[in-house]
Amino acid sequence: MARSLPKSRRQYVQALNTPTKALLRKLQDAEPKPLPKFVEPLFPMLRERPPVGDNWVHEIKFDGYRFQIRLWHHQAQILTRRGHDWTHKAREVAAAASTLVTDSALIDGEAVVMAEDGTTDFNELERELGKGDSDRITFHAFDLLYLHGHDLRRVPLLDRKRLLQALLAGLPEDSPIRYSDHLEGDALGMKLQACALGLEGIVSKLKDSRYVAGHSDLWAKMPCRKRDTYAIVGYALKGRKFDGFYLGEERKGKLEYAGKIESGWTEKEKAALFAEAKALQTRGSPLSTKIDKPKAKWVEPRVLVDVEYRAKTKASGLLRHPSFKGVRRDLMDRMKTPIRRRRV
Predict the structure, then answer these.
(1) All domains of the chain, ordered by start, with CATH?
(2) pTM for the full model?
């Protein structure tokens, strides 16, 4: 269970003085500013091999939803990577965050559902988020952007992480909020070990990096398997039987054909996804280039899915051995027009 708030204002002020206040006073780059409503996340760049050097630290890559916890006077919000309020989908995480001893904070991290073998299960996360009050969702906090009235985005990464660790130190062991630690040293060895254990991969970060919006080479990700987000652009029927979804991806501002996906889902997931796509059926293809698919029923490209694959064909960029991993509701939220494919 989450801990209770300090019983008096005096206790609260005393708690603020240690240890996070003491650490914060030592940071020259912490700027007194109002708490922002949302900060666009920093996204790591994809790399084939981990970076080499003593100026990098390395973290486990999670398979979940990127969230921010926004805390203001003990009222916690859960925000998606696009800034939409999903507090109602992760109430247990928000309740735990509301007990943190600070008047304001903005925490970056990943929400996941852990399997029994220690790996993360994206499909299970999607189902648990639908319940709203699931106790299986854990939030792995790896960065702190704001604390005690101070913007920390200009503060070096390791200093931000020290503050974050101190802020979370008082949470009980069974809290749904966890501190995501880092390692130094052999990044390649760490990636190989992570892949052998069935994990998603690793993320490497420059020790002194500031926090900037958007994709940046200050952070690098090395997944164990190739995985991207695609739009469903159509579906195929063999007679009256469902025969797979057609996928599209944006290339140079155009929506191009990316291949067909036929596996990876449960029967229940397939039925729900088929019904959702069928409701978006349209007369013509949404693709920029005409392709010969006589069985295709085209749909508006509003449903986004994560797909895992082995490789892409060199000539046309089509996916080889694609497998469905989950629907990206966090990217679809309030979407009126197709959005660009985003790597995960």
Answers:
(1) 9-41+62-179 (3.30.470.30), 226-332 (2.40.50.140)
(2) 0.72
